[in-house]
């Protein structure tokens, strides 16, 4: 009996040691991969900011809570209370536009993150997708270069251009066979516009 108990203790100790080693290895791998992933995301964001705004030489950043825009945007009632990042761009001291990092949780496969660039008059300059998990060949056509879908927002002012798909009474041509993704995209852009108008267009 003593021998059986001794063997059991040895096995248990081995299992605990192996588990500890595996946990340490996984933690180390996570630390090694986390930094490059964050660097890649930041580089993509910096590139997107430049793409959605006119040329600038100075950028000011702030954040606004998404839940502060819900009551002005009925589409956001179920939205998570995350923050939206706002970037005001200046050229030679003159305000030339604002980029807003926005999101929606209404995508077909979950959260979609966009960055929307507005000119001082409220017109949309350009929009870029930062992150999504939509279906390849369908919902991913929201990305620049994959379909004409994002081009229809360029130059439009949401004060007159209804940011919803035509099936819902709006002005947006939905992506074929990807209406949910199209609605979600409009939802995120609408949130950005609410923040833009709420802040008077730029950081106070």
Task: Give a summary of the structure in a few sentences.
The protein is of the alpha+beta class. It is built from two helices and five strands. It has two domains: 1-41; 53-198.
Structural features, described:
The protein has 204 residues and is of the alpha+beta class. It folds into 2 domains: 41 residues; 146 residues. Helix content is 35%, strand content 24%. The chain contains 2 helices and 5 strands; from the N terminus they run H-E-E-E-E-E-H. Strands 1-2-3-4-5 form a 5-stranded antiparallel sheet. A hairpin with a 5-residue loop joins strand 4 and strand 5. The termini are far apart. About 3% of the residues have low confidence.
Please count the helical segments.
Answer: 2
Q: Give the N-to-C terminal Cα separation.
A: 77 Å
In which range does the helix fraction lie?
25-40%
SSE class:
alpha+beta
Strand numbers in spatial order across the main sheet = 1-2-3-4-5
Mean pLDDT reading: 85
Shape: elongated
Q: What is the string of helix and strand elements?
A: HEEEEEH
The biggest sheet amounts to:
5 strands, antiparallel
Which value, in Å, is the CA radius of gyration?
Answer: 23 Å
| Quaternary structure annotation | single chain
User: How large is the share of residues in beta strands?
Assistant: 15-25%
* Tally of discrete structural domains: 2
User: Could you give the count of β-strands?
Assistant: 5
Q: Low-confidence parts, pLDDT < 50 over ≥5 residues?
A: 74-80
List the helices and strands and how they pair.
Elements: H1 2-52, E1 58-65, E2 83-91, E3 94-107, E4 110-118, E5 124-131, H2 179-198
Antiparallel strand pairs: 1-2, 2-3, 3-4, 4-5
